[in-house]
Amino acid sequence: MISFLRRALSFPHGVHPPDSKDLTSGVPIRRMPFPGEVVLPLRQNAGVPARLLVKPGDRVERGDKIGEAQGFMSVPVHASVAGVVDQIELRPHPDGSMAEAVVIKVDRHSPQIPRPRLVPYWEGLSPDQVREAVKDAGVVGLGGAAFPTHVKLVPPKEVSIDLLIVNGAECEPYLTSDHRVMVEHPERVHFGIRVMMQCLGVERAVIGVERNKIDGLEALERTLPGDLDITIQPLRVKYPQGAEKMLIQSLTRREVPSGKLPLHAGVVVQNVGSIAAIAEVFETGYPLIERIVTVTGPGLRRPSNLVVPVGTRVRDAIAFCGGLTEDAREVVFGGPMMGASQSDLDAPILKGTSGVVVLVRDQVAPGTVLPCISCGHCLDACPVFLNPSALGKLAQAGRYREMTEEYHLADCMLCGSCSYVCPSHIPLSQMFALSKGALRREQERAKRAEVVAGGETSSKVRLA
Ligand code: SF4
Ligand code: SF4
Description:
Strand content: 15-25%
Number of strands: 17
Distance between the termini: 80 Å
Helix content: 25-40%
Largest sheet: 6 strands, mixed
Number of helices: 14
Structural class: alpha/beta
Bound molecules: iron/sulfur cluster
């Protein structure tokens, strides 16, 4: 039976925001011309940032390493253009901070063409060599968190993995880069799955795709390799269908225990774009130096799916898309549900930037925040069955410990479903993000105090 005729699977709770994908879902991916400069922060992955390898004035070619990985939870950063290192300085980072970045002036006279391959051919490599090559190529998850991909390819010995789940849900409104990858490069997705299955030693893979991407489902089905056990499974269109825990539940009915990882449910989850990126580095021989990104929203004149060099400033991508409309008000990296508003259009598009959405006045006008009316809508929306109403009241009172110990704040994935349904416009998920930050700082302070106390004790002992 053709997969898209199968019953669409789902998970309990969740919400149904308008998907707003029609702006770009039918727009083919095209390459943006090289901008005048790129900005490459050394902090582009979850874990430890890369260590600087270049200095101002250095000539670099596309794919040259400019930042070295520091340990296991780290990946290198590569020059995404041929040119000259202009500056190394603090530049706006999409997370709102200033971060050390390498600024490269693009060589206008360089053909920017591929050089001899920097990543080995995949055929004949052992799983360990594949992991090493993936790490050296600087591959991270492209769905937002930028988790180093090679780490997912080395599951701890004590867990047993029997399934690879490929996340093609792309449930955030507006974003369509994964959709277009499935439509235009389905063989690349299958090749990436082959590489991951071989590395993980798993026999089975399932690709979950929301039903609003029928042409993506068809393309994957049409190109299915005959020698791999891959199932293509349609999913209900519901937010946050693409959250790892929700996806695992929808596709397998397995539950990831509280505080644990998908590994503990016997699965590894990787999103479609990231899988295609693994395939691409082996196909082209290039490290991860460019990515496909949706640049869209009602505040943009020509919404597009673009291939851009990593480090392209969002200002340049917006200009290439015809510029902002008069009522444009907010530029968000990621989608409108979980994305981060940008205060500086010089922030660069990084490896983990899945989309840029420009919202208009009506979409960002803050509703007046009213008191909680105990309607329970947020409880019905929360996909992990938390009590956002109670958590919100504790957050307002700064009672962070209770939020964690009694109301499981750690399980909140900041999906924004509760804020979306709240008729009182209480910014619940934003409050939870701040609470998590406050808790983290409190724990760090406590740890530092312990170290100081330990130091004092040992010096007293020495003195005695
Ligand atoms: S943001 Fe947290 S509390 Fe709110 S719905 Fe999502 S997981 Fe539940
Ligand atoms: S949705 Fe808003 S008003 Fe309703 S219970 Fe939750 S926090 Fe209160």
